[in-house]
Amino acid sequence: MFRRPLEFLNSLPAHGDLVEIRLGPLRAWVVCHPQLVHEMLRDTRTFDKGGPLYERLRALMGDGVVTCPHADHRRQRRLLQPAFRPSHVAGRTDAMGEEAESVCRTWRAGQRIDVAAAMMTLTTGAVSRVLFSDSLGAARTAEMRDCLAAVVRGLFVRTVVPVDALFRVPTPANRRYRDAVARLHALVDTAVAERRAGGARDDLLGTLLAAADDGEQAVTDQEVHDQLVSLLLTGSESPSLCLSSAFGLLAQHPEAERRLHAEVDEVLAGRTRPTADDLPRLVHTRAVVHETLRHSPPGWLFTRSTTRDVEFGGRRLHRGATVLYSPYLLHHRPASFPEPERFLPERWMAGRDADEPYGAMIPFSAGSRKCLGDTFAMAQTTVALATIARRWRLRRPPGPVAPVRPAVTLGPRSLPMICEPRTRELVEAEAGTGSLARRAARGSGTPASRKAG
Ligand code: HEM
After folding, report:
1. Residue 441 alpha carbon to ligand 1 centre in Å
2. Which of 58, 371, 383, 408 maximizes ligand 1 atoms within 8 Å of its Cβ, making it the mutation to test the pocket?
3. What atom of ligand 1 comes closest to residue 49's alpha carbon?
4. Are strands 322-325 and 26-31 parallel, antiparallel or unpaired?
5. Distance from the CA of 370 to the center of ligand 1, in angstroms?
6. Which residues, judged by CB distance below 6 Å to any ligand atom, belong to the binding site of ligand 1?
7. How many angstroms is it from 137 CA to the middle of ligand 1?
């Protein structure tokens, strides 16, 4: 599980629908059949958030909406849900496009960029707008991004090797993790204190502080902090990995890339980024996102803990049993998705997803603990993909491709790629003759603080 987790997971369905494994000293059960996974996800009272992953996350996020037990979940979800309703998300399409443009505007023809770092900049910027409007500023958003990246790197080993003593040793890696956690908490505390001093704003922090000040809703200052940390972590890392994986996969699949470029050129018709009205027409772009989420789901492994003795999958599980489910495992079952290793966006073109049996596609999970940001994430990744693909084709540099090592999430942590301009305007700008170059010469370039990658 630790050395080759994806291969290990894919080998399990051959042993049954519910398979016992060991995580260090701990016994755990992996649910391998989609129907059984849905049965578990529907019964959140019995299969509550718990097990090694959620114990680690709780140390970080407290009892925010991601980690809180069943008993407090409905109240928390109701508080946060309005900010992620489809109508709110549609209103943010422009801001999503702006974040994507500000990241790729600074790239130069032939430049080697780290796509993974650039996408983390993009998604941290987008989620921090939802939480804090623009009150963080570029420097603190960048610091936040670095902390978030360091924290998720340290989390996985703590999950699959749940032996606390190992992580108390002051090794450089343990110190880096602890420092990043401390900086993240401090950044959030500062943002809350500044807002309290500076007055109300219409964002998620504003909603949380209003609820905290209205004594009836039982929102403590600690909960305000925990919700912000929870949303920053979940809202930046997964969409960023989805985008990086998409660009990596597109570079290896020229036909899918060609169709993406053709669609983006037609739908945007000369504009630099899509509007909310364009989204329904970006059918192939969305299919690329969907197929990326199937092929390389950022959330690939989750744990639950049973709150009572229960008959499940033909076994008797005792109270406190650790149960795992893996979107990656379900997405790679040949019975659900023929040739699961192949990247085929056309699986998701009109009508074809209706064939998908048993709800085996669960990149955002299912049931009442389904991802709160699913609509936001789909819109954000589709807009970002279209905005970047309108300007740039990203190429893999020559040489071997490093295998992706899963951490607490799945996707490339570092992805060097070469920028190739797609439009005449950009080629001219690079040559110093076009309208972009003339604008840059007049001093309207992007500030250095927004450069990424
Ligand atoms: C491609 C991007 C994303 C993917 C693949 C993803 C995936 C998931 C998955 C699989 C879960 C369920 C975890 C479990 O069952 O234990 C989840 C939960 C959650 N996600 Fe996402 N997520 C994404 C983006 C986002 C964004 C952008 C936000 C918010 C800004 C967000 C907020 C949350 C929250 C709050 C939960 C906990 C929901 C609850 O328990 O009620 N996610 N996500």
Report:
1. 43
2. 371
3. 16
4. parallel
5. 7
6. 65-66, 77, 127, 231, 234-235, 238-239, 242, 293, 298-299, 302, 363-365, 369, 371-373, 376-377
7. 25
Closest Cα to atom 6 of ligand 1: 364
pLDDT of amino acid 443: 37
For the beta sheet containing 18-23, the strands, ordered from the edge strand earlier in sequence to the opposite edge, are: 18-23, 26-31, 322-325, 302-306, 47-49
Read off the pTM.
0.91
b (16+ CB within 10 A) / e for 382-408: bbbbbbbbbbbbbeeeeeeeeebebbb
Q: What is the pLDDT of residue 137?
A: 87
**Minimum CA distance residue for ligand 1 atom 9:** 364
Q: Which residues pair with 114 in a beta bridge?
A: 416
Cα distance between residue 192 and residue 219, in whole Å:
14
Minimal-distance CA residue to ligand 1 atom 16: 302
Determine the pLDDT at residue 352: 59
- Identify the bridge partners of residue 325 per DSSP, sorted by sequence position: 31, 302
**Average confidence (pLDDT) per 10 residues, the chain, 453 residues:** 89 97 89 97 97 85 95 95 92 93 95 95 94 89 90 73 74 88 95 91 93 82 95 94 97 97 96 95 97 97 96 97 97 94 92 65 96 97 98 93 82 93 72 51 37 31
For residue 306, give the nearest of 40, 35, 39, 19 by alpha carbon.
Answer: 40
Domain assignments of the chain as residue spans, ordered by start: 5-450
Pick 5-450's CATH classification: 1.10.10.10, 2.170.150.20, 2.60.40.1930, 1.10.630.10: 1.10.630.10
